[in-house]
């Protein structure tokens, strides 16, 4: 179980505005549900309230104030929620799930939560266990590759998994979905994207009860995905942050103008000392380059680890746990860790390769950039993101991302290392000077 928060109330004071768009059913209600100001106002199970208090949730965040009354209303209604990292969205949907489940039937699957990676599925599983710690009969299963033996059945009331594994378990009749009450899809922009996991999610949904409550959550919703989301979760209530609130405010976003592609590695090594002030994540384009950079840095005397999809599940779990615990402090990875993963000590994110999308990396990927840098600046802290550019294509891509997000990036100069260190250290040290508090992973 993740560590309890020491000062969760600081998280709830973030300045952002939440817009709500009610569905037709809600509009027709004489007294539509509004905001709540305490968790007690929601009629939650006493065990859940006790856990929230133990985890130092002093009051609902702004997103929770708006979303929870709608998600908990009866009859159940669908929800599409665009909610930035650190606003309490995971706690919101987990609280809803634990309130919907009949805990007198711990062996009957009643709630399904889907995530794009085993790492995020494991993290959500931990949050369910944490908020449900006082529920006597709570049972949670992880439907991820290698976790459910071929000759066994999914016999837990809450199931957290990845869409491919869940689809296989249903097809093989190892997973009885007939009594499912709620479907949650986290990182929905990626999960519903027709170029990604969208087909698998659609197939899973087609196998579920037609009246299941559908809750879609993501930090970003591109227009084309939002259009599909409204079909996937029909007549849904919607909540979203205002566009100008999307950029993570606690992150100092910088860029390093590298003389050439080959110079990027040497500059990365120069940054190594700064990476170890807290913990750092280095994002690269491919598995091969992640492995090559890790091997090269290790040979040059730097202690770094690498994690990507080529590793087997159990090894991936171990690598991520070593990073969470501080056993390893610098992690090189691909986009497998770009979404949702909470490690409170991460003070720096480096985009060694700018995120791109489309055939031949034809277009900049603003959403992935936003998810990547969101791995730092967690829980009210501040952090640094540094993006490497080395040619006109990478420069144009980063400029387009900055325009999309309406932000100004700080330029770092590779030929003025004293000034670079001063700028980066100033931010990281200001983060470490803050009171140390580590929310329990339910604030993604």
What does this structure look like?
The chain is of the alpha/beta class and 444 residues long. The chain folds into 2 domains: 238 residues, 3-Layer(aba) Sandwich (Rossmann fold), CATH 3.40.50.300; 182 residues, P-loop containing nucleotide triphosphate hydrolases (Rossmann fold), CATH 3.40.50. The chain is 36% helix and 17% strand. It is built from 16 helices and 17 strands. The strands form 3 sheets. It has an 8-stranded mixed sheet, with helices on both faces. Strands 11-12-10-13-16-9-17 form a 7-stranded parallel sheet, with helices on both faces. A two-stranded antiparallel sheet has the order 14-15. A hairpin with a 5-residue loop joins strand 14 and strand 15. The longest helix has 16 residues.
Shape: globular
Helix content: 25-40%
Q: Would you identify the CATH H-level superfamily of the largest domain?
A: P-loop containing nucleotide triphosphate hydrolases
Our measurement of the CA-to-CA distance between the termini, rounded to an integer number of angstroms, reads 16 Å
Q: Can you list the strand order of the major beta sheet?
A: 1-8-2-7-6-3-5-4
The level-1 CATH class of the largest domain? Alpha Beta
Structural class: alpha/beta
CATH architecture of the largest domain: 3-Layer(aba) Sandwich
> Count the helices. How many?
16
Mean pLDDT figure: 84
Q: Work out the number of β strands.
A: 17
- In total, the number of domains comes to 2
């Amino acid at each position: 179980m993740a560590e309890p928060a020491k000062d969760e109330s600081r998280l709830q004071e973030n300045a952002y505005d939440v817009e709500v768009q009610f569905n037709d059913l809600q509009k027709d209600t004489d007294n539509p549900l509004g905001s709540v100001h305490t968790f007690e106002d929601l009629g939650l199970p006493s065990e859940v309230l006790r856990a929230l208090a133990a985890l130092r949730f002093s009051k609902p965040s702004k997103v929770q104030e708006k979303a929870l009354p709608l998600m908990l209303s009866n009859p159940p209604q669908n929800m599409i929620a665009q909610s930035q990292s650190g606003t309490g969205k995971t706690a919101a949907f987990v609280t809803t799930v634990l309130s919907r489940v009949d805990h007198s039937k711990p062996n009957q699957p009643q709630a399904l939560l889907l995530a794009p990676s085993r790492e995020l599925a494991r993290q959500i599983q931990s949050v369910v266990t944490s908020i449900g710690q006082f529920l006597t009969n709570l049972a949670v299963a992880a439907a991820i590759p290698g976790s459910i033996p071929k000759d066994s059945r999914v016999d837990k009331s809450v199931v957290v998994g990845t869409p491919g594994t869940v689809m296989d378990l249903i097809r093989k009749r190892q997973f009885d979905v007939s009594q499912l009450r709620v479907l949650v899809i986290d990182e929905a922009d990626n999960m519903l994207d027709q170029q990604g996991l969208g087909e698998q999610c659609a197939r899973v949904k087609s196998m579920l009860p037609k009246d299941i409550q559908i809750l879609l959550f993501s930090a970003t919703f591109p227009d084309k995905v939002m259009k599909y989301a409204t079909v996937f979760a029909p007549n849904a209530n919607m909540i979203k942050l205002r566009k100008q609130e999307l950029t993570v405010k606690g992150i100092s976003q910088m860029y390093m103008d590298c003389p050439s592609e080959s110079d990027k590695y040497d500059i990365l090594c120069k940054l190594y000392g700064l990476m170890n002030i807290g913990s750092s994540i280095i994002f690269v384009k491919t598995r091969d380059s992640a492995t090559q950079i890790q091997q090269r840095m290790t040979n040059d005397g730097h202690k770094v680890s690498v994690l990507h999809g080529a590793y087997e599940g159990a090894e991936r779990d171990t690598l991520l746990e070593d990073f969470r615990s501080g056993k390893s402090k610098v992690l090189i990875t691909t986009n497998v860790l770009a979404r949702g993963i909470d490690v409170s000590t991460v003070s720096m994110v480096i985009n060694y390769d700018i995120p791109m999308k489309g055939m031949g990396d034809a277009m900049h990927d603003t959403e992935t950039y936003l998810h990547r840098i969101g791995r730092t600046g967690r829980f009210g802290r501040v952090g640094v993101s540094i993006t490497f550019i080395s040619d006109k294509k990478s420069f144009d891509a980063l400029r387009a991302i900055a325009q999309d997000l309406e932000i100004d990036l700080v330029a770092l100069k590779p030929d003025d290392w004293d000034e670079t260190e001063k700028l980066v250290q100033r931010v990281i040290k200001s983060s470490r000077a803050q009171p140390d508090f580590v929310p329990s992973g339910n604030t993604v």
